Task: structure prediction
Amino acid sequence: MSEISRKLFLEEAGGKGEPLIFVHGLGGSSNTWYPQAQVLKRDLRLICFDLAGSGRSPVTENISIASHLDDLLGVIEYSGAKRVHLAGHSMGTIVCQHAAAKIPDRIASMVLVGPFPEPPEPARIALRERAAKVRSDGMRAVAGAIAAAGTSADTKINHPTAVAFALESLMAQNPEGYARNCEALAAAVAADLSAIQCPVLLLTGDEDRTAPVAVARALASAMPNSEVQILAGCGHWAPIERPKQVNYAMSLFTARNKKKTT
Result:
């Protein structure tokens, strides 16, 4: 058993060949990527893990984007591969951006779903307030509003199970772990995007209020080898709200880029 697998919940999600490491977002877990794992395991070796304080991983001291980056680097070492593919959602996209900037020669490609470089100041304030609310009143006090705000109108009407998944994912979080991750995100700073060399696919929903289309396009303009795809009728929980579209986009993208690895 590796040091990182003793520290965090980590699992091999199937497949073989080049590793693809999934990094979930705030309020998520490795289960956020379940729809993608069922398809991408046909072509890649999939590795999932829960960020510290999230899902099935324990709450640790001093949770931050930097500590999450250290853990992701540990997962990359666990893979044993010279280069890996990364897929991040929401807060996980920031962790992935930092990894791709820090070790550009080891990242073969990167998919960022619901991406943003860092929170704007109003979001930082709201995240700190949310952390305080969760500590005082528990996850039930915030989960319903977050799940509703994070999903599109079409999802609520035609794909209500996606809203239910988001709600259950949030409700299952350890309140202190979630609060510490809110504070970690509130303190996040952008990576050096100019240092990212790998091909990057940015996917965002046209109703994503956390990572709006304009933010994804601005991110793409700062990374030389990137492309943006907009998902119609989709909010911030794209891996669950629009699994077929995300699967299709990721399958094509990784197929193009996995041949470039060694």
About this structure: The chain has a mean pLDDT of 96. The beta strands are 10-12, 19-23, 45-49, 84-89, 107-113, 200-205, 226-231. Residues 3-260 form a domain with the Rossmann fold fold (CATH 3.40.50.1820). The chain has one domain: 3-260.
